[in-house]
Amino acid sequence: MSKKMEFYYFHLMPYPYLPEDFHHQYESTWVTLPNSLYDPEKGHELYNRFIDEIVQAAELGWDG
After folding, report:
1. In angstroms, rounded to a whole number, what is the distance separating the alpha carbons of residues 23 and 19?
2. Buried-state track 18-44, b at ≥16 Cβ within 10 A, e below 16
3. Closest by CA position to 50, among listed 8, 19, 23, 12
4. Which residue segment(s) compose the domain that 58 sits in?
5. pTM value?
6. pLDDT reported for residue 31
7. Do the Cβ atoms of 26 and 35 come closer than 8 Å?
8. What percent helix, strand, coil does the chain show, rounded to 5?
9. Which of the 8 DSSP states describes residue 26?
10. Average pLDDT of each block of 10 consecutive residues along the chain (64 residues)?
């Protein structure tokens, strides 16, 4: 019986453009990030980058 190792790719798609004092003013970035801190142009670029990374993982043969 042969055993196979599987590799999975998971991405949380973090938003890294937060003010230095973010953690002193807000409880979390998870779901509750204020819209006022979001930059749509940066978000668009990040989303495309994250999708490209996911596609590359699939093309490299990752299992999921």
Report:
1. 9
2. eeeeeeeeeeeeeeeeeeeeeeeeeee
3. 12
4. 1-64
5. 0.76
6. 76
7. no
8. 40, 0, 60
9. -
10. 87 92 88 90 97 96 88
**Cβ-Cβ contacts under 8 Å for 19 (sequence gap 6 or more):** 25, 37
DSSP 35: G
Alpha helix (H) residue ranges in 1-64: 22-25, 40-59
Number of domains in the chain: 1
Dihedral pair phi/psi, residue 37, rounded to 5°: -95, -5
Q: How far is CA 13 from CA 30, 43, 50, in A?
A: 11, 10, 6
Residue type (1 letter), 49: R
